[in-house]
Amino acid sequence: MAAKASRTPLSRERVLAAAVALVDANGIGALTMRRLAADLGIEAMSLYHHLPAKEALLDGVVETVLAEIDATTAHLPTNGDWRERLRRQFLAARQAMLRHPWMPGLLSTRRAIPPRVFAYYEGILGTMIDAGFSYRLAHRALHAFGSMPLGFVQEIFSPGAADGGPEDGVSEAELAALAERMPHLAAMTAAEMHDSADPTLGWCDSQVEFEFTLDLLLDGLERLRRTAGAQG
Amino acid sequence: MAAKASRTPLSRERVLAAAVALVDANGIGALTMRRLAADLGIEAMSLYHHLPAKEALLDGVVETVLAEIDATTAHLPTNGDWRERLRRQFLAARQAMLRHPWMPGLLSTRRAIPPRVFAYYEGILGTMIDAGFSYRLAHRALHAFGSMPLGFVQEIFSPGAADGGPEDGVSEAELAALAERMPHLAAMTAAEMHDSADPTLGWCDSQVEFEFTLDLLLDGLERLRRTAGAQG
DNA sequence: TAAGTTACCTTACGACGTAAGGTTGGTCGG
DNA sequence: CCGACCAACCTTACGTCGTAAGGTAACTTA
């Protein structure tokens, strides 16, 4: 955005912070070495004194956002049973993740699991083990949570993760034709749309859906935990 | 791969099939206009007589794989309650998706929902409505399923979706050091690794995890369906 | 047979990541 | 004080990408 006139040299951290800001403002497609360098008031090749390659830049961006999530979730209250604790943690992570909607897509392009993720999941696992989970059930639970611990879900029906935001939808006429061949979808949209005047498919309240799915998983796991504990 | 000596002109379908084959064989990063053209025995610019742009090519690749899933799930038996039916369908979709592990990542870069996805979800929605779901609960269920109807889950801990496959992991020494700071993860891996001699993090049986998560969701939704039906 | 259309090709442009090597200005041992 | 060193930044250039512009050759049709 704005060239810096600073005299103190850059650092890896300053570069990564600028990269996050750039992606937040203009999407992941805008993160090029030249553009990032321009934002920092230097030339593209100078970035290579702070980072070995673009892949390392992307790794660093992921790491930066993960640190933000860590900071958000590290100091939450610890009262309540395991469900309340994890629920609080996942919802807090979601608040951080909402500031960086491009993060899920970027994370899924990383070829190695960022070390910080291990530490993060260690904490979640500890919460479940302390609550009496077997390692097996806790393992299954981690898979079932998917990416929810980091605050997002794979959403087929709201591709905000794609660069540049969603395309302008189909026309009114096409939509009517579609609805005719898909009566259930049409009826569902009609029934659920009442609290939003927006006729596009942006009518879903992601927060409500996220919490519903999370509770569905937590309650199901709690049931399994109890039955396993009773018979084991 | 092999240049064609065919005399009949290409078609959009042949181009898309070649693109899918190319990505299956060499990863999404290998799908460039020049490379695809070479595989087809033509020049890059000639592709533009069949497709308007690379984005359209990617859309077409997604559409092709979705059609494959449709074909796989269209003729399944329809006996059983809604849970058995959806379970059968999602697992069949998964079999198709396993042949194209790059598909989730590609799908998440599409800016518009492919029309075929609407039709696919119409069928799932119909199954639930016929089983007595309210539109509201069915709507929540669709969100809870996430991408499971298409046969995949967002897996933080197995980034096979990234191009080029997973990186060679940390060293033995680093892993030991990590384990010391993460006793629960270490214990879980030790407890769960017994049925696989592979000491890397590839020890999770994705099929088992997928089915576990799916049943967790289906059973939870069935309970909600019943209580809603009883009180409503 | 002439005109048009279809399917393919050639050339070229600007953006990308980055290899190779140059230019500063400050630090520090002698 | 000075010359070696080095960190931080710059210049130039290469190969690859998607694709705009326009050419050519073969087949179709009036």
Overview of this protein structure:
- 2 copies of one chain form a homodimer.
- The first copy, chain A, has 232 residues and is mostly helical.
- In chain A, 59% of the residues lie in helices and 0% in strands.
- Chain A contains 10 helices and no strands.
- In chain A, helix 7 packs antiparallel against helix 10.
- The radius of gyration of chain A is 22 Å and the shape is flat.
- The N and C termini of chain A lie far apart (60 Å).
- The interface between A and B is large, with 65 and 65 residues.
- Chain A binds a DNA duplex (30 and 30 nucleotides) through loops.
Give structural attributes.
homodimer; 232 residues; mainly alpha; Tetracycline Repressor, domain 2; 0% strand; DNA-binding
Please, what is the average pLDDT of chain A? 88
**Molecular shape of chain A:** flat
Tally of contiguous helical segments of chain A: 10
Question: What is the CATH fold-level name of the domain at 52-156 and 205-231 in chain A?
Answer: Tetracycline Repressor, domain 2
Distance between the termini of chain A: 60 Å
Annotation, overall tally of beta strands of chain A: 0
Summarize the largest interface: chains and residue counts. A-B, 65 and 65 residues
Structural class computed from helices and strand pairing of chain A:
mainly alpha
Report the helical percentage of chain A: 55-70%
Largest sheet data of chain A: none
CATH architecture grouping of the domain at 52-156 and 205-231 in chain A: Orthogonal Bundle
What fraction of the residues of chain A are assigned to beta strands by DSSP? under 5%
Oligomer: homodimer
What is the H/E order of chain A? HHHHHHHHHH
GO molecular function, one term (chains A, B): DNA-binding transcription factor activity
Keywords (chains A, B): DNA-binding, Repressor, Transcription, Transcription regulation
Organism (chains A, B): Lentzea alba
GO biological process, one term (chains A, B): negative regulation of DNA-templated transcription
